[in-house]
Write a structure and sequence with these properties.
Blueprint: E1 2-7, H1 14-24, E2 27-30, H2 31-38, H3 44-53, H4 66-73, H5 77-105, E3 110-114, H6 118-121, E4 129-134, H7 137-148, H8 152-160, H9 165-170, E5 174-177, H10 182-203
Parallel strand pairs: 1-3, 1-4, 2-3, 4-5
Length: 205
């Protein structure tokens, strides 16, 4: 198995890269999806969130009101730290499970672990490579305004609540620059896939 850590800030284009790699044949494990699974009704993590941040964040159907929670923690480092301390261990357990499943299904699989908080979470995985999808803070702010309808102040707060681009680039083995056109980003991703196939084959021989 060849395990890739794929990361990038909010609105960096990381999901576009992950989707393209999956189309090529990679096994895509989405940390955001695991984060949702980790707080499904009945989980210990959801109960801990309710106890820490208030029962009002639990909707009538028993699910987490994620937008309301986001409003509470974004821009507040201490509250975000408390939330991460609850959610990250649960996500790590799920990650180990899905990585193991992928390896058992295909020992030669190329697995893309798609995680926006790779720098912040300090995950206990040994990656063969770390790929960072990079775009400037201003590009990401403009995308949040255009595609998600956020105000400029809210978009800037979301971008500012994450690790800096410098921190992400410091851990990168490979950088995909997504400041350009979609075609340019996909072209870099296709080249990355070819490289991953070559590296994976080399590591298995």
């Amino acid at each position: 198995m060849y395990l890739i850590g794929l990361t990038g800030g909010i609105a960096s284009g990381k999901s576009t890269v992950a989707t393209r790699l999956a189309e090529h044949g990679a096994v895509h494990i989405d940390a955001d999806q695991l984060a949702r699974e980790a707080v499904e009704p009945g989980t210990d993590a959801l109960q801990n969130i309710a106890e820490t941040f208030g029962d009002h964040l639990i909707q009538p159907d028993g699910s987490l009101d994620r937008p309301a929670l986001g409003t509470v923690v974004f821009g507040n480092p201490e509250l975000l730290r408390k939330l991460n301390a609850i959610v990250h261990p649960a996500v790590q357990d799920l990650t180990r499970y899905y990585v193991k499943q992928a390896e058992e299904h295909d020992p030669n699989a190329i697995v893309i672990y798609d995680v926006p908080l790779l720098v912040e979470a300090k995950l206990p995985h040994t990656f063969n490579l770390i790929v960072v999808v990079h775009s400037t803070d201003e590009t990401r702010v403009e995308r949040l305004i255009r595609h998600r309808g956020l105000s400029r102040a809210e978009a800037q707060k979301r971008v500012g609540s994450q690790a800096s681009e410098a921190e992400r680039l410091a851990i990168a083995d490979i950088v995909i620059d997504s400041d350009g056109t979609l075609a340019e980003t996909l072209g870099q991703t296709d080249a990355l896939w070819s490289r991953l196939v070559t590296l994976s084959h080399a590591s298995n021989t």
